[in-house]
Amino acid sequence: MSFNLFDFDSHLQTNFIFSTTFHLLSLRAYMNKNIQQVSNVINRVIDFFYPPFRPFFNRQTFGYAACGGGNTMLDIFLYFIAFHFILNKEILYTPVVAISPHIAAFLISFLITFPLGFFLSKYVVFSESDLRGRVQLIRYFSLVLACLLLNYIFIKFFVEYMGIFPTPAKIFTTFFVVAFSYLSQKHFTFRVSKVTSQAEPD
Fold first, then answer.
1. Which residue of 5, 79, 102, 105 lies most exposed, with the fewest beta carbons within 10 A?
2. 42 shares its domain with 63
3. Which domain holds residue 16?
4. What span, in angstroms and rounded, lies between the C-alpha atoms of 199 and 7?
């Protein structure tokens, strides 16, 4: 009986593909389980504080205010730390361009609050959205780019033309951007299709 090296290699490749697929699916299931657990904990915390605000806000609006508020406070805190301590209020020089400290601090905080904001929106605030995950991510990224542009314009305007200190300028900018972001996420990024909405009981 002869040994066929080609058949042996094909067998190894097949085993490798099945093994890799199995481990990827297992990892995905594990991540989904942990994501669900984290989102459940956050929702329970929001539900605990919601009753006093029930006459003023619906659950989704309150959830967005809580998640968005927490993420925004983290964003401002990271901005302050980056501007005063990481950058030391100095221009950030890169091989391509020099970035002013108030803009560089914003970019640093953005790298952390962007993925956190998507997680909170997708799994906590707008979890009933029936859009595919990658569609949500693409739309969220597009919205973030729009918010990024608005942040840049407002911060640059407040700091360089209005003479406002960077941290207060960031706070003022946040009010405008958050309102725009909420309406965009509710009606575009994480919208619920009309068919799903009509199927829900009154």
1. 5
2. no
3. 5-49
4. 54
